[in-house]
Design brief:
CATH architecture: Orthogonal Bundle
Radius of gyration: 22 Å
CATH superfamily: Sodium:dicarboxylate symporter
Strand content: under 5%
Number of helices: 20
CATH topology: Proton glutamate symport protein
Shape: globular
Order of helices and strands: HHHHHHHHHHHHHHHHHHHH
CATH class: Mainly Alpha
Distance between the termini: 16 Å
Length: 419
């Protein structure tokens, strides 16, 4: 019997683990049935995404408008972007170093003529329109209501900040509006708590479909790249993020234990967005202000994709190694600089990992775009690690920036972790 007083089988993260285990078993031994489970995973992801827009809107608007200090907003925004850029660059550098040390692609000797170019063509076409100008223009929605229908996180954040400014300018007259928004936030979080109880079924369906559709055999010779990517991500989490956490006065291990339900959600669904509302709620419970949480976490989904950055560098150099394409130091640095930009626009894009990778490869034409097809079979397994690393990176960033702002003390954090 756990300390919480609940029987072990009623604890959410254990239920999710059971769902994942059953999903793997069904997918491996009953693949046809496993493929039919896809709607379970899709339905749960849609349920969660349905809640993201109103939760972000209410949290950001109430947090900023009730803060009444626009200087603080600018200061937090600057610190957030600076932090994101430094840590994201570290992730890219680590990925580049590790793939050059391990050399997982050497010895593959892939003959490009044997690859089916049509498998990669779709991603390459999407990558052509994947540039920073379009990315920034896309932040501005067509209408004030369209972000709530298409679910674009940055558009929602943009509208929320504008709305918060407008309410702030109303002065005391805005108090009734803020009360309504605060009440709405509590309603949506309660609704999210109801939705999340279906997480074990979502994880079961998503994992069952993944294993049935791709099979454990899809790993094949690419297992070395996968293992290298997982090890690199772990090193980044425990050494880089762990070091940052230690400097901020808390343990990365205790923090990971605190967000274990969200981590398992991402593991089961391969989508970091399913854990976004939960991460916001838990960050607020730790003592981070609503305004900081509302700014850092949603914007981190586009500007602080640590796992995606590691993947981009490792995958690009791996493909060069596998196709015997020599890359000098200058070309690798060019890859790194382009990846710093291309990764910023991947939030909310279907097949984002491949699209950003295709956009990055375009800077080094000597790496054949057809080689992308080598990674299609394992991308689903890689996406889980990308999503988990992105999630942890954004969570740590929120706590660290809150510590810099003096919103929460080291003692308060450790007290929350002990509950």
């Amino acid at each position: 019997m756990p300390i919480t007083g609940k029987p072990w089988y009623r604890i959410l993260y254990i239920q999710v683990l059971i769902g994942v285990a059953f999903g793997i078993g069904i997918g491996a031994f009953f693949p046809e049935f496993g493929k039919s489970l896809k709607p379970l995973g899709d339905a749960f992801v849609k349920l969660v995404k349905m809640m993201i827009a109103p939760i972000i809107f209410c949290t950001v608007v109430h947090g900023i408008a009730s803060m009444g200090d626009m200087k603080k907003l600018g200061r937090v925004g600057f610190k957030t972007l600076l932090y994101f850029e430094v840590v994201s660059t570290l992730a890219l550098l680590i990925g580049l170093v590790v793939v050059n040390v391990l050399k997982p692609g050497e010895g593959f000797n892939i003959d490009i003529s044997t690859l089916d170019p049509s498998l990669a063509d779709g991603y390459a076409q999407k990558a052509k329109g994947h540039n920073m100008v379009d990315f920034f223009l896309n932040i501005i929605p067509n209408t004030i209501f369209s972000p709530f229908f298409n679910g674009d996180l940055l558009q929602i954040l943009f509208i929320s900040i504008l709305m918060a400014f407008a309410i702030t300018l109303m002065g005391e007259k805005a108090k009734p509006i803020l009360d309504v928004i605060d009440t709405g936030s509590k309603v949506f979080f309660n609704l999210m708590n109801i939705v999340v109880k279906f997480a074990p079924f979502g994880a079961f369906g998503a994992m069952g479909f993944t294993i049935a559709n791709y099979g454990l055999g899809a790993l094949g010779k690419l297992l070395e790249l996968m293992i290298g990517f997982y090890i690199t991500s772990a090193l980044f989490i425990f050494m880089v993020l762990g070091g940052i956490s230690w400097c901020a006065g808390f343990s990365i291990f205790r923090y990971l234990s605190f967000i274990k339900e969200e981590l398992l959600l991402v593991l089961g669904t391969s989508s970091s967005e399913t854990a976004l509302p939960g991460m916001m709620e838990k960050s607020i419970k730790l003592g981070c202000s609503k305004s900081t949480v509302g700014l850092v976490i949603p914007s981190g989904y586009s500007f602080n994709l640590d796992g995606t950055n590691i993947y981009l560098c490792m995958a690009a150099v791996f493909l060069a190694q596998a196709t015997n394409t020599p890359l000098d130091l200058g070309q690798q640095i060019t890859l790194l600089l382009v990846a710093m930009i291309s990764s910023k626009g991947s939030s909310g894009v279907t097949g984002a990992g491949f699209i950003t990778l295709a956009a990055t490869l375009a800077t080094v034409p000597s790496i054949p775009i057809e080689s992308l097809s080598l990674l299609i079979g394992i991308d689903r397994f890689m996406s889980e690690c990308r999503a988990i690393t992105n999630l942890i990176g954004n969570g740590v960033a929120t706590v660290v920036i809150s510590r810099w702002e003096g919103e929460v003390t080291k003692e308060q954090l450790n007290g929350c972790f002990e509950k």
